[in-house]
Specification:
272 residues; alpha/beta; 10 helices; 19% strand; globular; binds S-adenosylmethionine
Length: 272
Amino acid sequence: MNYRHAFHAGNFADCIKHALLVWLLRTMQRKPAALMVLDTHAGLGRYDLTTGPAARTGEWRHGIARLLEQPPPALADYVDLVGRLGLYPGSPVLLRALLRPADRLACCELHPEDCDILRAAFTRDRQVAVHHRDAWEALGALLPPAEKRGLILIDPPFEAPDEFDRLAAGIRLAHRRFPQGVIAAWYPIKHLAPVRAFHTALRDSPVRDVVAAELTLRTPHDPARLNGCGLLIVNPPWRFESEAAPILAALRDRLGDGEAGEGCGIVRLVDE
Ligand SMILES: C[S@@+](CC[C@H](N)C(=O)[O-])C[C@H]1O[C@@H](n2cnc3c(N)ncnc32)[C@H](O)[C@@H]1O
């Protein structure tokens, strides 16, 4: 396990994933019934962007720094939350901040030290469980939730060559165990071939009602660079396509540098 999210915290990909995640959870909470949120690859929880790994790469300066400097109206909810939470919040801290009293969050993190740090962040928090366990195994073990309503974030590090295949298998498993669950799965866009193959794998699977929200900073020609990223959503809440589009457009406007191939969009991969 070489990937350490601390080097990348607050970068453009984090902003895209987290801004859409905040919209997803808030929208699901328009219904009063309790929810279970599962964060399968949770990371550390909080990141100091001014020292250590994040300061060394400076990726956050092209990401969350641009949004905090001048928050576009479509991103106000997400950016306010980041501003209010102190140290830069990773997905578990953002999701925890949105829980209502009857909701709960389960987090999995396989890196032992990161898991200890995450566990310490939620000591005595009865609404949060932190598991030192493998994400792919947890999808089978922790689903379906007793609440019968839930949001599952799958955010793998993409350090293994077969990560797209594992992600597609994980989505199929989560959907089989919990067909009504909302699944949000993050993926990198370095070049187009693996992304197309991933979309095709989902189209050819029994999973129904799938959309993908994508943003590219430049034409994805160079496989060595993170040229963009996507969030694939199974069972998106009603009006995802129309309500998430302005969020994505605001992210493109602030995070893009006007390079050729910059763009964003939401595509429906599989009908209901
Ligand atoms: C992209 S980072 C997660 C970032 C986090 N979701 C956020 O948005 O703040 C991926 C994390 O998954 C962890 N990880 C890698 N393989 C895993 C596995 N099989 N099961 C659980 N966690 C894993 C890594 O240690 C890393 O902390």
